[in-house]
Amino acid sequence: MSTFTLPNTNPSVSVSLTEDLARDQLIEFPAFKTWLAALQDSLSLQQQRDHVFHASPFRLQKIKVQSCDFFGGGRLGFVKLKAEISNRNGETLPGSIFLRGGSVAMLLLLSPRDKTDEKYVVLTVQPRVPAGSLAFVEIPAGMLDDSGTFAGAAAKELKEETGLEIPQDELIDMTALAVQADPTNISKEKLQAAVYPSCGGSDEFIPIFLWQKEMERKEIEEMRGRLTGLRDHGEKITLQLCPLQDIWKVCSRDGKALAAYALYTGLRNEGKV
C-alpha cells in the first residue's frame, strides 16, 4: 500500500492506495476529479456565516482507497473508497463511497402520425446482474465516457441500445431545465444538473434527456421486440413499447424512468417542453 498527499490541499490530505492502483490513475480518474471538486467546493461554503456548519466546519482529513475495478484496456472503471471528514468537535460525516462517475438516461416519446396525442415510451429489457435480474425493464441509459458532452453520450447510447440515430440538438436536457427553474437554490453547491439516484453511497449522477418524434404507426410497432445492444460487449437488449401513462407502473423498479416521468410532467405543465 502506498500513500501520497493530495495536491493543492491545505491542511494536507493524505491518500492511501491499494497495491493495484497508482497515484496518477486515481488523480486522473474522471469520477474522482468530479467528486473531489464538488466536495471541496461544498466544504468551502462553510465559511459563509449563514451556513449550517459555519460555527464548527468540517474538513476532509484523509482518503483511503479500499478496492478498484478495471475495464478492458486497463481503464479504471470503479473505485471504492472511504473519506474521513470531521470537525474540531470530533463529529464525523459518513464517507463510504462507491465512485463510478456519471451516466445518461433518455426518455424517448414516439407518437403515431395518425393520432399524435398517443405517446409511447421506448424501453429496454436486458440483464442487470447487480439487481439480480436477467430481464430488467428500464429507459435507455449508459455510462458517460471520458470525452464529449452529455448530449453526445446520450445520442451514442440511443444508437447502441435502440438503433435510432438522433442528432444531439434534438435532445432536451430535462434535468438542466428543472435545475434552472428551481427558485430556491438553497444549497448553492456546484453539483451536476442531474439526478443522484443513490447519494448516500455513490457519486453517480444522471442527466435525463427527452426526445420526441412523430413516426408512422408501422415504424413504431416494428420497434417492439427488436434485439439491439453491443453484442460483443455482452449487451443483450430487447426493445419494448409502453404507453406514457403506464410508465409509472411498468417501470416502477427503475428510478431513472420515474424521475424522467416526473421531470417530463412538471416541465410540460409549465410549458417548457
List the helices and strands and how they pair.
Elements: E1 3-5, E2 14-16, H1 23-27, H2 30-44, E3 59-70, E4 76-86, E5 92-93, E6 96-99, E7 103-112, E8 120-128, E9 133-138, E10 141-143, H3 150-162, E11 172-173, H4 174-181, E12 208-215, H5 217-223, E13 227-228, E14 237-243, H6 247-250, H7 255-269
Parallel strand pairs: 2-3, 7-12
Antiparallel strand pairs: 1-2, 3-4, 4-5, 4-6, 7-8, 7-10, 8-9, 8-14, 11-12, 13-14
Q: How much helical structure, as a percent, in the residues?
A: 10-25%
Number of strands: 14
The outline comes out as globular
Strand residue percentage: 25-35%
Instruction: Return the average pLDDT rounded to an integer.
Output: 91
Rg over CA atoms, rounded to whole Å, is 21 Å
Structural class: alpha+beta
Describe the structure.
The chain is α+β, with helices and mostly antiparallel strands and 273 residues long. It is built from seven helices and 14 strands. The strands form two sheets. Strands 7, 8, 9, 10, 11, 12, 13 and 14 form an eight-stranded mixed β-sheet that branches. Strands 1, 2, 3, 4, 5 and 6 form a six-stranded mixed β-sheet that branches. Helix 4 packs across helix 7. The longest helix has 15 residues, at 30-44. The mean pLDDT is 91.
Short structural description:
With about 270 residues, this protein is of the alpha+beta class.
Features:
single chain, 273 residues, alpha+beta, 8-stranded mixed β-sheet, 6-stranded mixed β-sheet, 7 helices, 14 strands, globular
